[in-house]
């Protein structure tokens, strides 16, 4: 689907397949040093909320994964479609070689192509602005994370403007992990 070789071997990016599930869990377990993110991915998938799920492969081995999932969005204007970027993880020995960035950029392209109007993330304020996310764009969004500089948004379509007012409801999967 995609190919990047920022500082090392070529990395392929493709959609998640049924045979990847164990490897995806392992990538997040290693990246986050815990079980919360592997369980979050499984719970969101089981709830049928996947919008985009991509794996990064080095020599056919899964070394990274990103999930974008559906969020309920109630806006004062129109019916925007919102997605949450969570989690993204890269196996520790493959980090800082462009893999996470390639997964996120490809995922955002696919979200846009699938009609997502806005993507939100709760993450490192130094990392996500490089993809266009900002806390300013999330200012009009009501969510359990509103007000934190780690809560950032990226409008993807003209239907959704930075600062647009809307209430986001996170699925139970986020509180269950
Ligand atoms: C965050 C993560 C997905 C980034 O993937 P990656 O392949 O390592 O990142 P890339 O190579 O695409 O980008 C490297 C850049 O990300 C920055 N970066 C990586 N992890 C970061 C972090 N935790 N906080 C801030 N910046 C970070 C690096 O400083 C580097 O910046 P530079 O390009 O200015 O030098 C990966 O490091 C990871 O899995 N970390 C553990 C899990 C995690 O924290 N996930 C994100 C939760 S918000």
Explain how this protein is built.
- The protein has 177 residues and is α+β, with helices and mostly antiparallel strands.
- The protein has a single domain (2-170), classed as 3-Layer(aba) Sandwich (Aminopeptidase), CATH 3.40.630.30.
- Helices cover 24% and strands 32% of the residues.
- Strands 1, 2, 3, 4, 5, 6, 7, 8 and 9 form a nine-stranded mixed β-sheet that branches.
- The longest helix has 15 residues, at 99-113.
- It is globular and about 45 Å long.
- Bound molecules: coenzyme A.
- Coenzyme A binds next to α1, β5 and α3.
What topology emerges from the helices and strands here?
Elements: E1 2-4, E2 11-15, H1 21-32, H2 36-46, E3 50-58, E4 61-75, E5 82-90, H3 99-113, E6 118-122, E7 141-142, E8 151-155, E9 166-169, H4 172-176
Parallel strand pairs: 5-6, 7-9
Antiparallel strand pairs: 1-2, 2-3, 3-4, 4-5, 4-9, 6-8
Coenzyme A binds next to helix 1, strand 5 and helix 3.
Q: H/E order of the elements?
A: EEHHEEEHEEEEH
What is the CATH class designation?
Alpha Beta
CATH fold topology? Aminopeptidase
Low-confidence stretches: none
List keywords for this structure.
4 helices, nine-stranded mixed sheet, binds coenzyme A, Aminopeptidase, alpha+beta, 177 residues, 9 strands
Concise description?
This protein has 177 residues and is of the alpha+beta class. The chain contains 4 helices and 9 strands; from the N terminus they run ββααβββαββββα.
